[in-house]
Amino acid sequence: MNAADFSTNRHSANVQMAMHMASKHTDLCFNDGNIVLLAGMSYFLVHQGLLARHSEVLDELMRSMDNTPTLEDRPVLTLPDSSTDVAHFLKAMYDGISFLTYNSEGFPTLSGLLRMLTKYKVHHLRNDVLRGLSNYWPTTLTQWDTREASVTGQDGTYTPRDSLPHPIEIINLAREIDYLPLLPSAMYDLTRSTPSEAAIGFVSPFTGVNVRLEYADLLTVLKGREQASRFFSTFIVNNLEGRQPSQWCLRRKDGHPINKRTCQIAFEAITFELLRDINGIISNRTSDPLYAMAEAEQMQIRDDLLNSEVSPMKTCEHCRVEFGAVVDAAKEDFWKKLPKWFDIDVSPWG
């Protein structure tokens, strides 16, 4: 990006009017500042050296200034950005990014800042913000599991929309700032919605804007959803349907025929529960293969809380540990395939 990409002072016939109408920002104006940034209906009295140090784009713009008008006896650089975005941008350069939050309420500020940091090539602050955002839209399965646990209540109810930005917002932002590592986890998150919900989009409760995917990304999400569903179906067929107990099964030598088949019966019951997806409905996590595969293992250690009886899905320790290894391997394989399913080149991944 160069100076010609901006509506600079010498190209704007309304600069004088904008200067006359603009109000001085209450916080980001310094008595020893030596340049004025004019954006929207506000102006900021700041330090040219600091701007040049952080942003090569601003440095180029300031070097190209000629015959510029002045305000408070300082040269004026007009930026084609909103005054709110410029305020957050300057605050980040002066004070750091500790004011940011990564929840849904803070997303408008965070996304606006990321666009500014990308546009003006403030690389170190952009990387810092992306590291924070990547904790919730990660590239590793371990980070994803941690993220999922953080938005799961003590009663097991999963409510990411109460705290995290909507995945459509993340997908659109990742495209806009050209940061592909956010996309696979965000797209997987969206596949857990129904196809109609993904297509319709959602209305942001904070901005009132109807947010939708670009058509190409919608098709990509739907194709990835089908791939994830096929993977899970194959997992059930290969690892649960007709699964035999471990060769070290503690019940293998039980003299009672029913007791001897307890672990095999448990695997049959787990298969039935996964196909019904009752736990997914209760916990608000339907169409979530990663959760369902992990749940297939967790079912083996929980009692039947509804009837206060021993669960018919409880296996012996040897059978559970053996199946747990299968689940871990399947989850890792699933996660590694996400970029390919969504046709995204991300390296490294996983």
Task: Give the arrangement of secondary structure elements.
Layout: H1 15-21, E1 23-29, E2 35-39, E3 42-46, H2 48-54, H3 56-63, E4 70-71, E5 74-78, H4 83-95, H5 107-119, H6 123-134, H7 141-150, H8 167-177, H9 183-191, H10 195-200, E6 202-203, E7 210-211, H11 215-239, H12 257-260, H13 262-276, H14 278-283, H15 289-298, H16 317-341
Parallel strand pairs: 1-3, 2-5
Antiparallel strand pairs: 2-3, 4-5, 6-7
Helix pairs in contact: 2-3, 4-5, 5-6, 8-9, 9-11, 11-16, 15-16
Walk me through this protein's architecture:
With 350 residues, the chain is α/β, with parallel strands linked by helices. The protein has 16 helices and seven strands. A hairpin with a 2-residue loop joins strand 4 and strand 5. The two termini are 33 Å apart. InterPro entries: SKP1/BTB/POZ_sf. This is BTB domain-containing protein.
Brief characterization of the structure:
With 350 residues, the chain is of the alpha/beta class. Helices cover 52% and strands 8% of the residues.
Top keywords for this entry?
elongated, disordered N terminus, alpha/beta, about 350 residues, SKP1/BTB/POZ_sf
Q: Rg, please?
A: 27 Å
Helical amount among residues, as a percent range?
40-55%
N-end to C-end Cα span: 33 Å
Helix/strand-derived category reads alpha/beta
* Sheet with the most strands, sense and barrel status: 5 strands, mixed
Low-pLDDT residue intervals, each spanning 5 or more residues: 3-11
The pLDDT mean sits at 89
The shape is elongated
Number of strands: 7
Order of helices and strands: HEEEHHEEHHHHHHHEEHHHHHH
